[in-house]
Amino acid sequence: MSFSPSNAVRAARDETPGEARSVSEIAGAIKVGEPGSFAALGTAFLTRLPAAPVPDPYLVGISGEVAESLGFDAQAATGPEKDAFAAFFAGNPTRDWPADALPYAAVYSGHQFGVWAGQLGDGRALTLGEVEHDGARLEVQLKGAGRTPYSRMGDGRAVLRSSIREFLCSEAMHHLGIPTTRALAVIGSDLPVRRETVETAAIVTRVSPSFVRFGHFEHFYSNDRIDELKALADHVIDRFYPHCRDADDPYLALLDRAVQTTADLMAQWQGVGFCHGVMNTDNMSILGLTIDYGPFGFMDAFNAHHICNHSDTQGRYAYGRQPQVGYWNLFCLAQALVPLFGANLPEEGRAERVVEEAQKVMERYKERFGPALVAKMRAKLGLEIERDGDDKLANGLFEIMHANRADFTLTFRNLSKLSKSDASQDAPVRDLFLDRAAFDAWAAQYRERLAHESRDDAARAAAMNRVNPKYVLRNHLAENAIRRASEKDFSEVARLLDVLRHPYDEQPENEAYAGLPPDWASDLEVSCSS
Known about the structure:
Elements: H1 5-12, H2 23-29, E1 46-48, E2 58-62, H3 64-69, H4 82-90, E3 104-106, E4 109-112, E5 115-119, E6 125-133, E7 136-143, E8 158-159, H5 160-176, E9 182-194, E10 198-208, H6 214-222, H7 226-240, H8 250-272, E11 274-275, E12 297-298, H9 322-337, H10 350-380, H11 390-404, H12 408-415, H13 427-430, H14 436-450, H15 457-465, H16 475-485, H17 491-500
Helix pairs in contact: 1-2, 5-16, 5-17, 6-7, 6-9, 8-9, 8-10, 9-10, 11-14, 16-17
């Protein structure tokens, strides 16, 4: 089934958001260049072009929740118009698009692995526009839709493997309560794509309030385009942080928001053992969202120096370094915003005052991150009352976890089974440690600390299980789903998505998804090649 995109856009522009059901209505609900949108900033920020079609697209997976957030039923992807749905979200209907309705690729720059890389941009992503539904405005983007002016030497494609991983992880992170872009669907095609080996193409539909990155600001700063830099900052403030307008310096207030949201995000990543893998400044969201799921991983065996991206030969983005990298990236953002700071200050002494004020804002990262991480660790340990030494207790656990390569997720989940008074019940967590004596010594300290808590074991366990997930997207679980999907069996993608929607629940029927990884999982690698 096919339809004319231009007719769909024109006919459905006045459809009430939330009523879209047919593919034509879905297409029409996606607005382009509306006032206040990123696209309305103009051609200095983006290039409009059609997606590159793929042959015979088919649905691999869809998130019903994200479909609902966009105002339509996920059954549109599997009903009579399923072929049209797959074609649309593969970017295939490229004929007759009105010039002002073409998708767009955004330009930005950035530091990659700590080195200035110059101009970058959406090398394989095209934003269709935005949908307004239930008072929220969400941008809809196709990742893997073909070459753009910013592809450099790339082919503009994504592969089935990486697209499934991004689809599942972005939804998993959302249900863990961690700020993230989300994913509507994965569309596959048998189009061959060469990476380390020949794989097949896929397009993942990403959804976010905004895809603006630190690198967007760096781009205009580095090219001395201050008017565009200001327009971009004004867009973010007016759209997402209007309260910044009430500050003495709205742009310093914007930096402050980035500092706070990034500090919180780093604490949340550390708290679940998540490693991003490519924390370049062009992969840092101005809204503090987890963005760009390339090489990433949830740790199995805990290693403070774990590197999830085998392209990261220097370990710049190792687990233990993520908080410091977040801070470094914020310095790059602050530098890019410097021309906007202090607009109301007298010229004499302005430069010094601006630097001083920006440094004060940057110091709030440390003030925010440390307490946020300690609070998260206290909750993970089931400690309701704040006491001196709680951070040392948590660090002590991490030290023996690191020495024993204890499973990150299972250690914290099973710790809830530990009794205040009966050490005979320690086996579920104790058995994760080869050095039982080291665990016993730490457990004695933990019990001594629990003696100051008023909650009984059952209440503490319930609280701990609300913050310590049982189910995360372990690499081997994603790999199982990918292998089946490569044989056109997408059932495991759907089942795993459903499991990850309830990460804190027991789910007895899905117990196998919470177990230790198999031996073969240690050989799995992810890299920037996806």
